[in-house]
UniProtKB/TrEMBL annotation:
GO terms for cellular component: adherens junction. Residues 1-20 are annotated as: Disordered. This is Ras-associating domain-containing protein. It comes from Adineta ricciae. Coiled coil: none annotated. GO terms for biological process: regulation of protein localization; signal transduction. GO terms for molecular function: cell adhesion molecule binding. Transmembrane segments: none annotated. The lineage of its organism: Eukaryota, Metazoa, Spiralia, Gnathifera, Rotifera.
Amino acid sequence: MGKKLQQSRLKQKFSRTSTKEGGTVKIFGDELNPSIPYKTFLLSLNDTAEWVVKEMLNKYGMKYEHPITYCLSQIILPPYNQMDNKSIKQVILHDKECPLHIYLNHIQKNQ
């Protein structure tokens, strides 16, 4: 019952959020726990990579770990028809970078 109520509240929160204010992003943490490949986050445009790392550790039950020893990276995949291992890029985000802002800019550039 509690989980259903939480899901309902999150759904309401997600539906009220537009891309001007924020949005949902899947953050893949399979390096932290292979049995849980990703977590979905509701991010504002101003949420930083540092904040996301702290929240990820918390969601994966690692809240006592030191966030400074972890990082958030962005993996950029080429279009499906151009896919090969050489064209996959991985960039480590700086603590003060905003993942949702970066994501939305990337989508806007590639439309």
